[in-house]
TrEMBL record:
Protein name (database record): SMP-30/Gluconolactonase/LRE-like region domain-containing protein
Ranges that cross the membrane: none
Stored InterPro entries: Vgb (IPR051344), WD40/YVTN_repeat-like_dom_sf (IPR015943)
Keyword Signal (UniProt): yes
Signal peptide: 1-20
Keyword rRNA-binding part of the UniProt annotation: no
Keywords, ordered alphabetically: Signal
Length: 367
């Protein structure tokens, strides 16, 4: 989802700085699951239509299924296809997935993942276990459609994906397998996080355009709402809706989670209150059953949540960490975070990519 090298370098430069304990230390409630593929680097997380947890690897061509009842892990291979040699926007890179960080459920009952620099969409058919790969029609645009920094969302009829470097949002129809392409009006806007909201529109962030977009998927009309920059800067992942009118998104640079009212277009912004969080890089957000918004922080091994009405944050230490803040040691790269309320569970799942593991935190004691 993000340029990893840049953040690793930042982290290495800043390690060893001051320590202050976050609010909650609760290590009994954590469970860690090591991924079977060495150096796979799990990144995003989602709940499937089958109530299983799914993650995808940054560095391996697989979609991973975790059974929340047994903790059993199953992997599905993404076939390596060359769409057409002439259509590749990059030289051949040895068949290795590079930096895809998104897995999402489709409303057709299947799971979808991006393939990173291969610029394709992978569909895991949950009935057959077969993964198919689909190539968007616009892979030849001059700047390429590198999906390194992208996201997806399953709408009622289409899987939507942002092709960030080409300023494009694409829709893949579940039934016909036809693509539609929507050009974002602002050049260099880098469309990224997205959610099909209760108003029937696809809302998305423009990470470099510093705007929130709204796509009418019927007419193709895109409205754009500038964020109050720099209070709100680099809107990133937008996955939470609350109260029927608010959409919430993480902000890398303003170190915050912000909201936009879908009807008044007013913004709310809550700064991360963890100690030394200036470069925490809030990454992904998710809503729990108590209507709390949780978010991951790329560089700090914490899980943080807040009620949308007050923004009052609680920070929970992820155990197996020597130093929590300002940059955690060891640096584990916490990106994925996903609430899970199925099978009688009440959990927050998270990924720690560099340690090749998925963890979960039980919200109820003694689960
Ligand atoms: C690949 O490029 C050819 C033209 O060179 C074009 O006709 C075809 O539609 C492209 N295919 C894809 C999948 O983009
Ligand atoms: C999309 O635009 C059409 C035409 O203006 C309108 O009737 C429809 O309600 C819009 N859809 C959404 C979700 O805003
Ligand atoms: C939204 O913002 C406008 C302009 O700043 C303001 O007049 C209005 O009261 C705000 N509405 C709410 C519900 O906060």
């Amino acid at each position: 989802m993000v340029n990893m090298r840049c953040f690793v370098a930042t982290a290495l430069a800043l390690t060893g700085a001051a320590y202050a304990a976050p609010v909650v230390s609760d290590s009994d409630r954590f469970t860690f699951l090591n991924m079977p593929t060495p150096l796979g680097l799990p990144c995003d997380l989602a709940v499937g239509p089958d109530n299983m947890i799914y993650t995808n690897y940054l560095l391996a061509n697989k979609i991973v299924q975790i059974n929340p009842t047994t903790n059993a892990i199953k992997e599905f291979d993404i076939p390596f296809t060359l769409p057409l040699l002439s259509n590749l926007s990059l030289p051949v890179y040895g068949g290795v997935a590079f930096a895809p960080c998104v897995v999402r459920p489709g409303q057709d009952g299947n799971m979808y993942a991006a393939t990173g620099l291969r610029n394709q969409l992978a569909k895991l058919d949950l009935a057959t276990g077969v993964v198919s790969v689909f190539t968007p029609p616009n892979a030849l645009q001059p700047v390429g459609n590198l999906q390194l920094l992208n996201d997806m969302w399953g709408g009622p009829e289409d899987m939507f994906l942002s092709q960030s470097t080409a300023d494009v949002i694409s829709a893949f129809n579940y039934k016909t397998h036809q693509w539609r392409t929507y050009q974002v009006p602002t050049p260099g806007s880098n469309p990224f996080g997205m959610r099909y909201a209760s108003d029937g529109a696809l809302w998305f962030t423009e990470t470099l355009g510093q705007k929130i977009g709204r796509l009418n998927t019927t007419t193709g009309v895109i409205q754009e709402f500038p964020v109050p920059f720099p209070t709100v800067a680099t809107p990133a992942v937008l996955r939470v809706e609350t109260g029927g009118d608010m959409l919430w998104f993480t902000c890398f640079v303003s170190d915050s989670v912000a909201g936009i009212n879908m009807y008044t277009h007013n913004f709310t912004n809550y700064r991360n209150t963890a100690f030394g969080s200036a470069v925490s890089v809030p990454s992904v957000n998710t809503l729990d059953a108590q209507n709390n918004i949780w978010f991951s922080t790329w560089t700090q091994n914490l899980l943080t949540y807040f009620p949308p009405a007050t923004g009052k944050m609680t920070h929970i230490e992820i155990p197996r960490t020597l130093i929590y803040t300002p940059i955690s040691v060891p640096f584990e790269m916490n990106v994925g975070v996903q609430y899970y309320g199925g099978e009688g569970k009440n959990r927050i799942y998270f990924t720690q990519s560099i340690f090749n593991r998925v963890g979960y935190y039980d919200l109820d004691a003694g689960q």
